[in-house]
Amino acid sequence: MEAKSLCTEKVIQIHGGIPLKGATRIQGSKNASLPVLAASILIPDTCLFMNCPKITDVYQMMDIVSALGGKTSFRDSGLEIDARDISGYALPNENVKAMRSGICFLGALLSRKGEVRLALPGGCVIGDRPIDIHIHSLEKMGVVFQRTEDELYAYAPKGLLGTTLRLRLPSVGATENLIMAAVKAQGETIIYGAAKEPEIKTLCDFLNACGARIEGVGQDTLHIQGVATLHGCEYQLPADRIVAGTYATAVAITGGEAFLEEAPIKDMEAFLVLLGKMGVKYECFPDGLYIVGSRTLQTPDYLKTDVYPGFPTDLQSILLPALSTATGDCIVEETLFDNRFGVTEELMKMCGKYVKISDRILLVIGKRQLKGATIKAGDLRGGAALVVAGLAAQETTSVTGVNYIERGYENICRDLNNLGARIVLKEECLG
Ligand code: EPU
Fold it and tell me: Phi and psi at residue 46, in whole multiples of 5°?
């Protein structure tokens, strides 16, 4: 038994070339769930999160809440978190190192316990991810930071103090942390230059449902009046716009036709406009998105990622295989992260061709026919891109590094099987 477990690895095996057809339901949003779960520890009460995705990042968040003294359990109705007995302030290293979102607990624990200790989130495969905006803004709210080489300890000697903050850039994570710090701070906090991603709106809506006073939700200036206490609530998490974009791209690239139930269309405009430019037809319904792909995808003039409502960086990787098979060459500009073209090395094994002009500019050579290969995911969205490429490729593709994909996709094989894909998750001995 021991020998078997040492040499087995999860592999997603895909027989490509099948046009996807049918319907699949879009899971709850990872990037909406993670900050909301961190925020639940602000509330000395019970919260029920409906539509929370069963992904490994969520399980990591549950482990952290449990380590801090909370109780968590998945029920039929959703994820229940009871944060009445939060007693700890130190995050377990193994969880913080396994994902980036441990950083969400910075604001939440400072607010609930007045102090926090966590391992420094390290570099990341999609580029350097500094936390200077989180730190400088919290310092303005009265927080004192002590850093060692690999650890951060922070405390608020006079409690958290409302103030005016101007963010150097609209960081999603920093905006989330500052909202969590501000909801129970003394007085008013104004955040200028806040991120406007839909996940920020979810966090604000959830906290307002618990008794917070946040105004300007969905805009780049937030006014937050601190309140003495928050109460629990039941909250429906939105569907995942990046998962919906992944499956829409899979349908498009295979020339299929499918309905993506509950796709959050209103948050997907920039992506859908781009798909339209590539000759993909779509129709929006109150309960989802109907996509009709094309065997001949058109190349868009240019693809540039941007903060919301611009084209999401998380879907940039996923579109790379589709751009490879399209009618011409395309320049892709990544404006958020400095190393988000890593997946091209694996896509080249499938006969994709890419010229990296700089860390942020990539030339995608079009008119390529992708071929099956054995490839390895190195990050979450890159991993999903490899699966999409495998669906379009001739012959069989095997994707390893499945643990990255499982961080954000509840069950990518189930969802794509619903659309008629021939895709299975296997345990293989690679030793
Ligand atoms: N930045 C700084 N200083 C800071 C904070 C950010 O320089 O203090 C820089 C980062 O280095 C990066 C840029 O600002 O270059 C954007 O970072 P941001 O803080 O906005 O991103 P994040 O909160 O770390 C979230 C998502 C990412 C998504 C980005 C951008 C979660 C858990 N993560 O990351 O999602 O790509 O926003 O939309 O919400 C993913 O789901 O695969 C993923 C990486």
Answer: -110, 140
**What's the gap between Cα 285 and its chain centre?**
24
Query: If phi over 0 gives left and psi between -120 and 50 gives alpha, with beta otherwise, what is residue 211?
Result: left
Q: pTM here?
A: 0.97
Q: Please state the atom number of ligand 1 nearest to the C-alpha of residue 308.
A: 38
- Beta strands 71-75 and 288-292 are unpaired
Q: What distance in Å separates the CA atoms of residue 252 and residue 25, rounded to the nearest whole number?
A: 17
Q: Which atom of ligand 1 is nearest to the CA of 197?
A: 38
Active site residue 124: yes
* Tens digit of each residue's pLDDT (9 = 90 or more) over 186-226: 999 999 999 999 999 999 999 999 999 999 999 999 999 99
What is the helix, strand, coil percentage profile of the chain, to 5?
Answer: 35, 30, 40
* Closest CA relative to residue 351, chosen from 365, 333, 340: 365
Beta carbons of 20 and 256 less than 8 angstroms apart: yes
Is there a contact between 141 and 180 (Cβ–Cβ < 8 Å)? no
9-19: pLDDT as tens digits? 999 999 999 99
- 427: enclosing H helix or E strand: strand 422-429
Q: Looking up tokens 């994820």, which residue turns up?
A: 79
Catalytic residue among 124, 284, 351, 429: 124
Which secondary structure element, helix H or strand E, spans residue 47, and what is its range? strand 46-50
339 C-alpha to ligand 1 centroid (Å): 13
Q: CA quadruple 60, 101, 270, 331: dihedral positive or negative?
A: negative
Q: Is the CB of 409 under 6 A from ligand 1?
A: no
Q: Name the strands in the sheet holding 8-15, side by side, starting at the edge strand that comes first in the sequence.
A: 374-376, 396-400, 8-15, 422-429
Tell me which H or E stretch contains 234.
Answer: strand 234-236
